[in-house]
Amino acid sequence: MTVTLFIPCFVDLMYPQVGISMVRIFEKLGHKVVVPNGPACCGQPAFNTGYWEESREIAIKMLESLKGAEAVVVASGSCGAMMKVFYPELFAGTEHEQAARELAPKCWEFSGFLVNKLGVTDLGAKFPHKVTFHDGCHGLRELNNKRPPRDLLAKVQGLELIEMGAAETCCGFGGTFSAKFPAISTAMGEVKCASALETKAEYIVSCDSSCLMQIQGLADKQKQPLKTIHLAEVLSQQ
Amino acid sequence: MSAPATHFTEDATRVAHDLRHRGIIQTAMGKYETVRDQRKMWFQDWQGARNLAARTKFEAINHLDTHLAEFARLLESRGTKVHWASDAAQAREIIFEILRAKKAKVVVKSKAMTSEEIHLNDAMEKAGYEVIESDLGEYIVQLREEPPYHLVFPAMHLTRGEIKDLFQKKLNDAPSDDPEALTMVARRALRKKYLQADVGITGANFCIAETGMISITENEGNARLTSALPKTMITLVGIEKVLPRLEDLALFLPMLAVMGTGQALTCYNTMYGGPRQPGEADGPEEYHVVLLDNHRTLLLADAEQRDSLGCIRCGACLNVCPIFRNVGGHTYGTVYGGPIGSVITPHLRGLQDWKHLSYASSLCGACTETCPVKIDLHHHLLQNRRNASAPKTGKPSFFQKLAFKIFAPVANRPALWSLTTKVSRVGMKLRGLVNGSALDPAQAWTKTRDLPPVAKQSFREWWKEREQ
Q1: Which of A5, A10, A11, A12 is best to mutate for the B interface (most B CBs within 10 A)?
Q2: β-strand A2-6 against A32-34: which pairing, if any?
């Protein structure tokens, strides 16, 4: 299969290792990886702020760049939800609605793609650490991705998953929300970190680098012994 | 920024840092979640029940005209006077007319969020009436001269020690901080008032169109006393509370109890069909029902968000909302707090003044996931944001629009993105010199959180190099 990989803007800039890990995993499984030279962003920041017209300026280019793709893997549950769930709404009643509706079923978040599309759970990874998993809200509630990341972690050698009480509670990132309401966002992050610390896990794993940026940023500032890592990086450890 | 927005941001910032508040609410909500989940298990098919409830409510709202007419006709046939109030002022005036006609001095009330919505207590007190809230939680916040903290738990932000001190100060009677002893103090004070009251005012949980009856569900029996002892009873209820059939209560009463308080069923469930009929032992001599619109019909006209009129005010979305849990109920500055309040308040009180509530959300969707009538809450927040920022329906912010206008071509053109990558690599290093200070352009983030650097090689740069 040809996997078209979309690496969202902030992953591209700050977490390239996440994208590189995904490329290596898909190639190891024998798939061809394509990275289109298209938009760097899915348009979610403008969309979530209410500027749908400005969001469409980017999303139209995205539809063009992904036209004809066999399967699109998005390296973020949040951006994946934007393209799979919200593009059809964003373009409803416009000439691009059809293209958005055609793209939606072909869009996958990384873990959901491996488990639900490719039927793969064991990647032969080794990661001898205690970890806890943070469910990114969009992956969990828009894409219904509760099981796939856990199915994948269950097959990692040496890894012990200890669920935290607040696994499904938002970390407080929320895109522009984190800068518009920093006090609320920080309090939410503190609740998340406290729950993760209770598990005594070494790492918080997630499918969303944005959540991990929030959690790690807070933990570092408060000098808490928490390390974060993206699922793809765990799965590429041999 | 609008005055409510400034107020919200200031209060949210203060309460979010208040670790004592955080502790009280997290503990209370943790207990709620445990019992709620136990009771949900008693439903054979919880998701099926939600689907049925959502369908029933949506059907009721889509045929509000016929259901309300039938409801009013049947109530009136048993001697109830039904009043229609377009807005808060009219509802208050209708109630004042009744109070004047009855030469009332003392009014006892059971819990009614609609009365908070129209600021009834304040108006009645200013007009010289003695007003007593009879729900224990409402009574406590009334003594504290503050609005209810939560739709269902008005005094959940207080410890029993604080309630003991309050009773000592206001009632001069607080033997201990034992909840039962404190309840007895309130009970003694309230019993006298039921007997003195000329008029009892209640809210309603449901209006049954098929039988022309009001359904009130409660745990303290105070609504029963409010309706049974005074000679005149008034029920103030929003027009959206209609259910088509009596049998619908078989679903909605347990559902409301489970999601509201984690009970299988609340302790007292009463139907009110009119004033005392010939041969009946009790009940008021006169019964008035005030049906309140107050912009609900505007929401009804909004095809996208009409389902939010299906809300049964269980408060479940508040309980799971990480924003509510961190900013508390009073911060919203409006009667309906939490996710449902953030959705409907811009419709009820004006989009531009209240749009900040729709932005004060990480859009996590926990509200939508829990809502028993499946209101698409967090997507409605997105729609409110769109309506607030679109040129046709709202007022776009010049700077935000400009920022997104500039960002679009940067994101769209690989050459520009590549340049941005290089520039931000340097920019982030320079920013690091003022990290977290007032000079830091990213201070909203960096004051409380570290920001990772731009990688030495971005993913796109890596891919390009690999392809060559």
Answers
A1: A12
A2: parallel
Q: Are residues A137 and A195 in the same domain?
A: yes
Q: Verify that A14 and A77 share a domain, yes or no.
A: yes
What is residue A206's three-state secondary structure? strand
A8 and A95 share a domain?
yes
Which residue spans within B35-157 are E strands per DSSP?
81-85, 106-109, 130-133
Q: Is residue A112 part of a domain?
A: yes
The answer on A213 and A191 residing in a single domain is: yes
Is B371 within 8 Å of chain A by CB?
A: no
Distance, in Å, from the CA atom of A173 to the CA atom of B438, rounded to the nearest integer, reads 21
Domain count, chain A: 2
The answer for residues whose C-beta is within 8 angstroms of residue A53's C-beta and 6 or more apart is: B390
Q: Which of A84, A117, A150 is the last residue of a domain?
A: A117
- The answer to the question of residue A125 being in a domain is no
Pair (A98, A138) in one structural domain:
no
Task: Enumerate the residues of chain A whose CB falls inside 8 A of the CB of residue B459.
Answer: 7, 11-12, 16, 18-20
Say yes or no: A107 and A202 in one domain.
Answer: no
Cβ separation B364–A137 shorter than 8 A: yes
DSSP class per residue in B374-418: ---HHHHHHHHHHHHHSTTTS---HHHHHHHHHHHHHHH-HHHHH
Residues of B with CB below 8 A from A14's CB? 452-455
ipTM above 0.95, yes or no: yes
Last residue of a domain, one of A88, A117, A146: A117
Report the top-level CATH class of B60-294. Answer: alpha beta
Per-10-residue mean pLDDT, chain B, length 468: 94 97 96 97 97 98 98 98 98 98 98 97 98 98 97 96 97 93 96 96 98 98 96 98 98 98 97 94 94 97 97 98 98 97 97 97 98 98 97 91 94 95 92 89 94 96 94
Residues A113 and A135 in one domain: no
What would the two tokens of residue B37 be? 């989940």
Please give, rounded to a whole number of angstroms, the shortest distance from the CA of A56 to a CA of chain B.
Answer: 9
Let me know if residue A122 belongs to a domain.
no
Q: What is the CATH number of the domain that holds A21?
A: 3.40.50
Q: Are the beta carbons of B411 and A58 separated by less than 8 Å?
A: yes
Which domain covers residue A205, as residue numbers? 130-235
Residue B125 sits at the chain A interface (C-beta within 8 Å): no
Quick check: B322 and A188 CB within 8 A? yes
> What are the residue ranges of helices labelled H in B295-373?
296-300, 316-320, 322-327, 338-349, 351-359, 366-370
Q: Which of B26, B417, B448 sits opposite A40 (nearest CB)?
A: B417
Residue-range domain boundaries for chain B: 1-41+313-396, 60-294, 406-467
Strand A71-74 and strand A130-134: the pairing is unpaired
Q: Cβ(A184)–Cβ(B16) under 8 Å?
A: yes
Tell me which residue has tokens 């359904």: B215
pTM: 0.96
Q: How far apart are CA A111 and CA A121, in angstroms?
A: 9
Domain match, A16 and A99 both = yes
> What are the CA-CA distances from residue A135 to residues A158, A168, B278, B354 (Å)?
21, 5, 62, 30
Query: In what helix (H) or strand (E) does residue A16 lie, and over which residues does it extend?
Result: helix A16-28
Contact criterion met (CB < 8 Å) for B363 and A12:
no
Using the Cβ of B183 and the Cβ atoms of chain A, whether some distance falls under 8 Å is answered with no
